[in-house]
Amino acid sequence: MTEMTITRFRELADAFGGNLERWPEQERDAALALLSKTPDLSPVLHASSELDALLDGFMNDAELHDTGFMRDPILEQGGGFDIRGLLNSLWPFGGLWQPAAGLAVASLAGFLVGVNIDDLSATEASTAYTDQLTIVERALGADALEIDQ
Asked: What is the pTM of this model?
């Protein structure tokens, strides 16, 4: 048997209550030994026993459900899958058309920006400019037109 600390005694009293018979079997002898050496721990057991009695006074789940105090709306709908309830829990701010419309507009804006932006690097852009000058020169009939860039 290992010795029990006061902290461990308090933890077990909080977890298992004031009745030592509810404590883990391997902890009981050490708890009784500590309790005999430290009578100041008796109020800890007494307080836990009071809490146990208070908790025992509560209704069980069936009684609590009958009072309507803890009604679960999902369970009251028959326990079936409810897509509307799921969507409302995901987006509780109103109709689902709002985020869907926002997503559609953002997607369209991204598409339009992506299509209209030149994706040419600096080297390719200067080559395109040079090609355009050549086309203008040939259109004007000049062999060598000097245009400052």
From this structure: 0.40
Residue 99's CB is within 10 A of a number of other CB atoms, namely: 13
Which 8-state DSSP code applies to residue 23? S
Pick the closest to residue 121 from 132, 129, 109, 110 (CA basis).
Answer: 129
Residue 62 vs residues 52, 58, 67, 80: alpha-carbon distances, Å: 20, 11, 9, 20
Question: Residue 77 has what DSSP assignment?
Answer: T
Instruction: Read off φ and ψ for residue 3, nearest 5 degrees.
Output: -75, 145
Express each pLDDT in 54-68 by its tens digit.
887 776 666 666 665
Which contiguous run of DSSP H or E holds residue 15? helix 6-16
- Cα-Cα-Cα-Cα torsion 30, 46, 20, 56, nearest 10 degrees, comes to -150
State both tokens at 33: 């030994």
Give Dmax (Cα) for the chain. Answer: 115
Residue with tokens 């869907």: 100
